[in-house]
């Protein structure tokens, strides 16, 4: 059973993984993944900038997690493994569709800020700022700041060396600060 914070003990998580992976216990799988569905969707929404695409990729991620759960070796946290599947799904979606490219082009044509109704200072949309980052930097920043993964977990999720992950997060943070200061 989950503790007061909703987290499962390592032993309980391993027991549920065994039941889900080797006994096709859907209730065990649901117990494992329900705490992470919102985070996965939020991550994919942050990467794609689109609710519908995020929903589709989340569903595909969960389907793949179900079918590949027997491959999870327990060497890291389950949430990091799920984000790795989600990130790969995002990259696959990115390769297979031109919508992302078209959306980025349209975004570049939009003003970076909008005037407030009362004529007050312009506000920069967080999604617009995130969209200004390259996909790898955006993914690293979201996994770090919004999802709370460690640099090592991000390195595994993105299949990038640890130093590269740290550089991606640092440069993305600097770019966001610079964009915000000039916005």
Walk me through this protein's architecture.
The protein has 183 residues and is mostly helical. The protein has nine helices and no strands. The protein has helices at residues 10-23, 26-48, 51-68, 78-96, 99-109, 126-131, 135-146, 151-158, 162-182. It is globular and about 55 Å long. Mean pLDDT is 81; it is low at 110-124.
List low-confidence stretches. 110-124
Secondary structure tally, helices? 9
Could you say which structural class the secondary elements and strand pairing correspond to?
mainly alpha
Strand portion, in percent?
A: under 5%
N-to-C CA distance: 47 Å
Counting DSSP E segments of at least 2 residues, the number of strands comes to: 0
In one word, what is the shape?
Answer: globular
Order of SSEs, N→C? HHHHHHHHH
Major sheet details: none
Radius of gyration: 18 Å
Compute the average pLDDT: 81
Helix content: over 70%
Describe what is shown at a glance.
With 183 residues, this protein is an all-alpha fold.
Set down the secondary structure blueprint:
Layout: H1 10-23, H2 26-48, H3 51-68, H4 78-96, H5 99-109, H6 126-131, H7 135-146, H8 151-158, H9 162-182
């Amino acid at each position: 059973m989950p503790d007061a914070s909703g987290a499962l003990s390592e032993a309980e998580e391993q027991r549920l993984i065994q039941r889900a992976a080797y006994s096709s216990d859907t209730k065990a799988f649901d117990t494992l993944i329900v705490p992470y569905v919102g985070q996965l969707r939020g991550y994919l929404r942050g990467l794609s900038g689109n609710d519908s695409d995020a929903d589709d990729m989340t569903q595909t991620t969960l389907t793949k997690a179900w079918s590949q759960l027997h491959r999870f070796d327990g060497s890291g946290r389950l949430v990091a493994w799920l984000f790795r599947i989600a990130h790969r799904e995002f990259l696959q979606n990115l390769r297979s569709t031109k919508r992302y490219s078209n959306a980025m082009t349209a975004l570049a044509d939009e003003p970076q800020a909008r005037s407030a109704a009362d004529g007050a200072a312009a506000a920069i949309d967080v999604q617009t700022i995130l969209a200004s980052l390259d996909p790898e930097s955006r993914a690293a920043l979201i996994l770090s700041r919004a999802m709370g993964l460690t640099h090592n977990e991000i390195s595994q999720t993105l299949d990038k060396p640890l130093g590269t992950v740290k550089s991606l997060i640092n440069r993305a943070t600097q770019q966001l600060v610079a964009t915000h200061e000039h916005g």
